[in-house]
Design goal:
Layout lengths: L10 H12 L1 H9 L1 H7 L4 H9 L2 H10 L4 H14 L2
C-alpha cells in the first residue's frame, strides 16, 4: 500500500519544475526559497522535500540543454491541444 510519502510528484510540482527550466528568475527563487515557492504553487510537504533535494548544478545543466528549444516545444504542445478540439 502506498503512503503519502510514496506518491509521485504532483501536477503542481511538475509545472513548477518545467517553468523553472525555462525561467532563470524562477529557477533562482526555487533554490533560494523552496518553501515560499511551494506555498505559491500550493505544493505539499513531499514536494517541498523534493525541491530541497534538487541538485542546482544538474538542474542548471538540464536548463542549458533546453536553451532556445523549450519555447518551440511549448508552442507546439499548445497548438496541438487547440487543434485537437
Amino acid at each position: 500500500m502506498a503512503t503519502q510519502d510514496d506518491k509521485p510528484a504532483g501536477h503542481g510540482l511538475m509545472e513548477l519544475l518545467g517553468r523553472a527550466l525555462v525561467d532563470p528568475k524562477l529557477r533562482d527563487h526555487v533554490f533560494k526559497d523552496p518553501h515560499g515557492v511551494a506555498k505559491q504553487y500550493q505544493l505539499g510537504p513531499q514536494d517541498v522535500e523534493a525541491l530541497q533535494k534538487l541538485d542546482r548544478a544538474k538542474f542548471d545543466e538540464a536548463a542549458s540543454g533546453l536553451s532556445g528549444r523549450a519555447d518551440v516545444r511549448i508552442t507546439i504542445a499548445i497548438r496541438g491541444h487547440f487543434n485537437a478540439q
